[in-house]
Amino acid sequence: MDAQDKALEKRFNRGMLLRLLVVVGLMFSFGYALVPLYKKICDLTGLNVVTTRDLYGGSVKNTQIDKSRTITVEFDSNARGPFAFRPVKNSMEVHPGELTTIVYEVANGQSRDISAQAIPSYAPKQATEYFKKVECFCFKQQTLKANEAREMPVVFVIDPNLPKDVKNITLSYTFFEVGTPVAQAPQGELDAPRQGS
Fold first, then answer.
1. How high is the pLDDT of residue 73?
2. Which residues in the chain show pLDDT less than 70?
3. CA of 60: how far to CAs of 52, 69, 97, 123, 157, in Å?
4. What pLDDT, on the 0 to 100 scale, is given for residue 62?
5. N or C: lower Cβ tally within 10 Å for the chain?
6. Residue-level pLDDT at 197
């Protein structure tokens, strides 16, 4: 290969390097501009809109919340075991369709771990099917370490189809210890003959 061919190859390589750098620069610029370009296309076409707007430019409101009605939800607690258990509030005013959170506090004052389960009940009974829990400590058994105190949330929504005459709902939890051994009956009582046999 003579000097002229080497010079030609060197010039070709420089030209190719320059073209590749331009392509890399264009690709970077396109990637950088893609996000605002995508947002603009979505605004124009109405596709993949994260925050929808109403006709007047404001955010669209959640139409599932019935602001014309207010339901008073009262919270009750019963403990069946060696722990303290109570809601942080006794009652709340909520609108049907509104996502609401209430927190219950539980404390294990024992020097041993305790397993417990919560069972909910509702009053009036007809409200049961309209009281929808999204998150609840009652969904699974709870294990409280020795001397542990814990806050446990309940996230719920009241179905807007709740009958109009229901204005108050009581959510009551019975929190009871599970897994404790049941006391055995004295042996003499099991062996004693029954009357009439």
1. 95
2. 1, 46-63, 180-197
3. 6, 20, 16, 34, 20
4. 53
5. C
6. 41
The DSSP result for 103-156, as a single string, is: EEEEEE-SSS-EEEEEEEEEESGGGGGGEEEEEEGGGS-EEEPTT-EEEEEEEE
Q: How many CA atoms lie within 13 A of 170 on its CB side?
A: 9
Give the model's pLDDT for residue 59.
45
Q: Which residues pair with 79 in a beta bridge?
A: 175
Distance of alpha carbon 53 from its chain centroid, rounded?
26
Q: Exposure of 169 by Cβ count < 10 A (0-12 exposed, 13-18 middle, 19+ buried)?
A: buried
Question: For residues 97 and 66, what is the distance between their CA atoms, to the nearest angstrom?
Answer: 6
Place of tokens 């190859």: 9
Phi/psi for 11 (5° steps) reads -65, -40
> Terminal CA-to-CA distance of the chain, rounded, Å?
120
CATH, domain 71-178, list 3.90.230.10, 2.60.370.10, 1.10.10.10, 2.60.40.10: 2.60.370.10
Tell me the C-alpha distance between 94 and 96, whole Å.
Answer: 7
Would you call 185 helix, strand, or coil by DSSP?
coil
Provide the token pair at 37.
């370009």
H/E stretch holding 73: strand 71-80
